[in-house]
Amino acid sequence: MTANAADLGSTAFAAVLRALGLAALALGAVLALVFAFAAALIVSVMVAGAALAMRLWPRRRTASERVLDARRTPSGWVVESGRKV
Predict the structure, then answer these.
(1) Distance between CA 33 and CA 47 in Å, rounded?
(2) pTM above the 0.85 mark?
(3) CB count in 10 Å sphere of residue 63
(4) How far apart are CA 59 and CA 56, in angstroms?
């Protein structure tokens, strides 16, 4: 066997390994992008569901007549009901 034949075999083997490594790297990148897309899709569905629930949920009622608001003034305490007339 000549040196050229041995070099050709090792060069071909190295090229095959390099191609397999590149294919594995590309497959990993594709899988990472697929999982990132799936995660973004799940999060966006959750956010849309929360926005829809907030839109359809009953509104909080305003303060009733039984709720009092107190504040201190220079002349003393002032107590008011939550309803403004």
Answers:
(1) 21
(2) no
(3) 13
(4) 9
Domain boundaries along the sequence of the chain: 1-56
Say which range, 11-15, 42-46, 49-53, has the weakest mean pLDDT.
Answer: 11-15
64 vs 60: CA distance, rounded Å: 11
Looking at per-residue pLDDT, the higher value among 61 and 85 belongs to 61
Nearest CA among 77, 59, 57, 60 for reference residue 68: 77
Please give the C-alpha separations between residue 6 and each of 13, 22, 25, 46, in angstroms, as whole numbers. Answer: 11, 24, 29, 60
Residue 61 — very low, low, confident or very high, per pLDDT cuts 50/70/90?
low
Predicted pLDDT at 33: 98
User: Rounded to the nearest 5°, which phi and psi values hold at 38?
Assistant: -65, -40
